[in-house]
Write a structure and sequence with these properties.
It is built from 10 helices and 11 strands. The protein is α/β, with parallel strands linked by helices. The chain is globular. The structure holds nicotinamide-adenine-dinucleotide. The site of nicotinamide-adenine-dinucleotide has 25 residues, from helix 10.
């Protein structure tokens, strides 16, 4: 069994991003990322802090617009409009989830698609589906990079994607399909999850349920990508896979933490550089 080391690969990518930023700075270009954080959900605040820190380390200018959960939709749209027009900002991301009284679709559609470094605007979603150049959502993009790093080619493989959200499961399935895998997508209403996971050469799971994938649900030598992040009672982080009992059956598996998580931040930085270069015609 080989561990897919997202921590090591993300460091490589972040070092490359840092070099790219230095080159851009020689041409008087500093890439900029604006993050909008609404409310005080501890997990969201922690993710935003990690993103800001990563930007700082890479030399990317970043600004966080923090707003109370009581804010109205119009005020968020005003900030997005300002960021769309701000020439120092190349990437805009809205930390999800938003409070219930805010329409997430309206907010995401207000972001200039050329600055949509999270790749959640329907324009970029469509381009990814069509296999065109686009901003690829950071988490599934990170998974594809991790597979590439370990010479795992999804072409012709039976892949089971568990979880079908717009930010994880759907783009994950799309990228794997574009890479010529045969993709099975499962979700909360799937009748018999085990029936699907058992025949998969690769399982990508991003659900948010501790120990969802158990030993008897996977075949020998399976490759497992665990995207789930769950905080358990003792305060530690675990994924969606019963790692202790499943890992010995795998040919490759991502750990949690240290697998997909660090890749997500690295790919966000990469998307921000891509935007800066695109916008400056480089
Ligand atoms: P979500 O709640 O939007 O979607 C969850 C998906 O899982 C849905 O499609 C739902 O149908 C499916 N699901 C729920 N229970 C299920 C079950 N018992 N069996 C099969 N499918 C089931 O969540 P999300 O935003 O897509 O996040 C999913 C997980 O990925 C969470 O744990 C989240 O923390 C994690 N995540 C990790 C990263 C990362 O960088 N590693 C990034 C984003 C999200």
């Amino acid at each position: 069994m080989t561990i897919l080391d997202g921590k090591a690969l993300s460091k490589k990518i972040r070092d490359k991003v840092k070099n790219d930023v230095e080159t851009l700075q020689h041409n008087n270009i500093t890439p900029g990322l604006a993050v909008i954080l609404v409310g005080n959900d501890p997990a969201s605040s922690a993710y935003v802090k990690m993103k800001s820190k990563a930007c700082k380390e890479a030399g990317i200018y970043s600004i966080v617009h923090e707003m109370p959960s009581s804010i109205n939709q119009e005020n968020i749209l005003e900030i997005i409009d300002l960021m769309n027009k701000n020439q120092n900002i190349d990437g805009i991301l809205v930390q999800l989830p938003l409070p219930e009284h805010i329409d997430t679709t309206v907010i995401l559609e207000a972001i200039d698609p050329t600055k949509d470094v999270d790749g959640f605007h329907p324009y970029n979603v469509g381009r990814v589906v069509a296999g065109l150049d686009s901003f690829i959502p950071a988490t599934p993009y990170g998974v594809m990079e991790l597979l590439k790093e370990y010479d795992i080619d999804p072409k012709g493989k039976d892949v089971c994607v568990v979880g079908a959200s717009n930010i994880v499961g759907k783009p994950m399935a799309t990228l794997l399909l574009n890479a010529n895998a045969t993709v099975d997508i499962c979700h909360i209403y799937t009748k018999d999850l085990k029936e699907h996971t058992l025949k998969a050469d690769i399982i990508c799971v991003g659900v948010g349920v501790v120990n969802l994938i158990k030993e008897d649900m996977v075949k020998d030598d399976v490759i497992i990508i665990d995207i789930g992040i769950n905080r358990i009672e003792d305060g530690s982080l675990v994924g969606d896979v019963d790692f202790k009992n499943v890992s010995s059956k795998c040919s490759y598996i991502t750990p949690v933490p240290g697998g997909v998580g660090p890749m997500t931040i690295a790919m966000l930085l990469k998307n921000t550089i891509k935007s800066a270069k695109n916008r400056k015609g480089i």
